[in-house]
Amino acid sequence: MKTVQTKAKIISNKKIKENYWHLEFESAIIAKNALPGQFVNIRVGHGFVPLLRRPISIYAVKGVKVKLFYQAVGTGTQSLSQRKSGELLDLIGPLGNGFDYRQAVKAKDARSILIAGGMGVAPLFFLAEKIKTSQPLVLIGAKTQKQILCMQEFKKLGCTVKLATDDGSLGFKGKVTDLLKLVLGQTKGLGLFSCGPRPMLKRVSEISCENKIPAQLSLEEHLACGTGACLGCVVATKSGYKRVCKDGPVFSSKELTW
Ligand SMILES: Cc1cc2nc3c(=O)[nH]c(=O)nc-3n(C[C@H](O)[C@H](O)[C@H](O)COP(=O)(O)OP(=O)(O)OC[C@H]3O[C@@H](n4cnc5c(N)ncnc54)[C@H](O)[C@@H]3O)c2cc1C
Ligand code: FES
User: Fold this and answer.
1) Looking at residue 111, what is its pLDDT?
2) pLDDT at residue 66 in the model
3) Atom of ligand 2 nearest to the CA of 228
4) What is the pLDDT of residue 257?
5) Is 4 left (phi over 0), alpha (psi -120 to 50) or beta?
6) In 3-state terms, what secondary structure has residue 185?
7) pTM (2 decimals)?
8) Which residue from 225, 235, 242, 251 has its CB within 8 A of the most atoms of ligand 2, so it is best to mutate?
9) What is the pLDDT at residue 158?
10) CATH topology for the 4-95 domain
11) Please, are residues 246 and 222 in contact by the beta-carbon 8 Å criterion?
12) Would you kindly state where each structural domain of the chain is located, as residue ranges?
């Protein structure tokens, strides 16, 4: 894997709704090397404020263009939302270990199931693009209808999409993990791929174990250096502590301890 630190030209940085943004930049080398589940670590401001870079998953790649999908939640991502097209963005990437989707593309009598909570749609959309010929099933969960993200984009790829909202305002009423249990009663799952809040990933892990289906989970912990040097992002695994930024962010559910 080739990781670079580069100053990439911003092609566009557009608000798509509320505090959700699409940012597209140009980097032939990142575009060529990026794999689903990997991320870029961005110096979001013009100088060193904020000091720490912010990690954002690679959402899509087209030619030499790389697209990110982010939610402006705090100082760093709000700074990022102020960046303008034509400016240079200092970033490092692609970073981390992404999803292993070699089996998923070969799927015939069973389907890959992608389970996204909130912004967890971002790395899973890039994955869906890679495995779209195997017609993955995508489950998207959120608190309410307004927070359901990327439904149309996944459908355009040819994925079957099912939704779950806590308040029942759209799709299944309840947690996306309850929907997953229901779906696994009717569909043969080849493998689970998931990204979202920790409690959701823990439940996906339990369901994968109960159903004897492998699961790959992408963790979105708080990072510091983002390059494996500071040990600020370690999580407990069966083989000791591992760094989310370098050994992950994608881990096998069998590996993680909760
Ligand atoms: C590998 C990886 C990939 C990511 N991909 C994306 C992505 O594609 N799109 C996207 O919008 N976000 C993504 N994130 C989360 C994103 O990095 C954080 O939202 C961002 O760093 C917050 O910075 P901030 O300064 O805006 O917010 P802060 O001021 O640092 O925090 C604002 C609020 O967000 C919470 N928060 C901060 N970081 C995280 C986090 N990592 N996970 C959960 N809550 C957090 C804080 O607790 C606080 O409540 C990813 C994180 C990781 C580790
Ligand atoms: S953030 Fe420094 S090792 Fe992961």
Assistant:
1) 87
2) 98
3) 3
4) 92
5) beta
6) helix
7) 0.95
8) 225
9) 93
10) Elongation Factor Tu (Ef-tu); domain 3 (2.40.30)
11) no
12) 4-95, 102-252
CA distance 123 to 142: 16
Confidence (pLDDT) at 190: 85
> Residue 146 corresponds to which tokens in the numbers above?
């307004």
Instruction: Give the position, in ligand 2's atom list, of the atom nearest the Cα of 224.
Output: 1
**Which positions of the chain have pLDDT values less than 70?**
1, 107
Distance CA 252, CA 159 (A): 23
Ligand lying nearest the CA atom of residue 42: 1
Per-residue confidence (pLDDT) for residue 222, from 0 to 100: 87
| pLDDT attached to residue 241 | 95
Q: Provide the pLDDT for residue 88.
A: 97
Q: What tokens does 187 get?
A: 């569909």
Which positions ≥6 away from 199 have C-beta within 8 Å? none
Ligand nearest to the CA of 229: 2
Q: Which amino acid is at 201?
A: L
Q: Which residues, including other chains, have CB under 8 Å from residue 218's CB and lie 6 or more apart?
A: 37, 57, 99, 120, 123, 193, 194, 195, 248, 249, 250
Region 102-252: CATH code? 3.40.50.80
Is residue 197 within 8 A of residue 116, CB to CB? The reply is no
